[in-house]
Design goal:
The protein is an all-alpha fold. The chain has 2 domains: 132 residues; 415 residues, Neurolysin, domain 3 (Orthogonal Bundle), CATH 1.10.1370.30. It has 24 helices and 4 strands. A two-stranded antiparallel sheet has the order 1-2. Helix 8 runs antiparallel to helix 9. The longest helix has 35 residues. The chain is globular and about 70 Å long.
Amino acid sequence: MDRTRREFLWQASAAGASAASSISTLFGAEPMDTAKSLIADHESRIRPIEITTGEAWWTANVTGKDSDFAAKEKAQNLLDGALADPVRFARIKAVRAAGVADKSENRQVELLYLQSLEKQVDPKLLASMAAKANQIEKAFNVYRAKVAGKVLADSKVRELLKESKNSAERKAVWEASKGVGLAVESDLKELVRLRNESARNLGFSDYHVMMLALNEQKQSDVVSLFDELDTLTRKPFEALKSTIDTALAKQSGISIDELRPWHYHDPFFQETPAVFDADLDAPYVKADILKLCREFYAGIGLPIDDVIARSDLYEKPGKSPHAFCIDVNRKGDVRVLANIVNNEYWMGTMLHELGHAVYSSRNIPQSVPYILRGEAHILATEGVAMQFEQFSKDADWLAAMGVKVDNPKAYDEAGSKAKRGHLLIFSRWCQVMLRFEKAMYADPGQDLNKLWWDLVEKYQGLKRPEGRNAPDYGSKIHIVSSPAYYHNYMMGQLFASQVHHAICREVLGGVAPDKASYVGNKGVGQFMIDKVFAPGRSLSWKDLTRFATGEGLSAKAFASDFQGD
């Protein structure tokens, strides 16, 4: 797109009521009454705006600059305005209602409908939501915990929570890490109100119900699945946590009854504490994490050198302290933002984010139409990322990758316990996130601080700090930037377990799932391309699961993984 046209598109965004009308005026209002014409229209006028929005989102998260966040908000308003165009949406509804004979075109029309439905509200409301979310995300990016006058990077927070033996220091660091919740509390509550208003204007009971529906999920079905997982994991988790509590209490020289959330190493207890006999970080202290990633993915036939070349991978002021992967244009421009430190956490994180990268337009054929040239569902891409992430704790994988481990037997035992523990711990953490967001959007006026800790106590078994009344829920960025999303991590883990078991059967000759490393086996990459990546969004997540694994999504493979069968 030439510069003049790009600038004109930016100027047309006029954050607010004029956004949709600007788009209609710019592109005209000729009737479009076939699937082909709707698809062509989307590719010619929406696709360039989506690319611009992706670029702006990336830049803002890398720099943290006010000007870049303003550009990000402006781009989002333009995209929202384009998708909100009521004339365009009426044509999509008409074609959808009439039925589309061609399977591919029918799927594309359905996705256009779901993408645009959310935007069919007052443009001023859309702009207000974008502005508020942008403001909160910026607050997350610039926030750094401060203890005794010293500013701590996110990696330092994690290091102290993992290594300090001083309970008072741990508490101070943990509380400081939660401070961002208080900083964004009022804005987050207003954002929840705005989101609910938009959902109700579209006929949904609340925003959580709407977001699941737009992602081809039903809230009651998801809750039923999580009820089943709760039953499946409760007793094994309680047994694991008892072992962890004993070790953590010993580490800090306190009784088990004195354990509080800051003793569990991770700020949210979503990771396995380092309580096993081997130091899982030790092999990575002098390792080249990027080199390991390059060699691993190239060895299975999914090279990622070009992704790394476009990425931003180390800490700096203003930059988002988190990690994510973005496919900017669905033509292979895939990037990762990270903040690498030499430890097991970041080895796993990089395998995870690069797992997203290989499940992208780099490996979805360009022959797949643009609208379908993405992951089948967010749970599918999260599943793939977690499927590859698992190897960071695996002694056999490290050995196959040429990394020296001082005591391979001890590391293997500790890593196996940590992997199985992670499945259980993460499952319980996902219960908190799903049920909190569901309840928050259903009744945002309730005591959200109490709701949060009630759920943490019930599903994670942590004791709430005495006398604490702070918006700790607000310190989890996903509640702002990825609302009604987190349950897909858990559903993705079920998907990952099933795909991994299928690879063990069909590619690795029946090797036990807990003994498979993938290293150097290009058949693994080919399986992923053929059975998971290639369909893009032409298949729903339910159909993709059956296509890739031969059965519908269930907890069977996951259960055998955390039980070690």
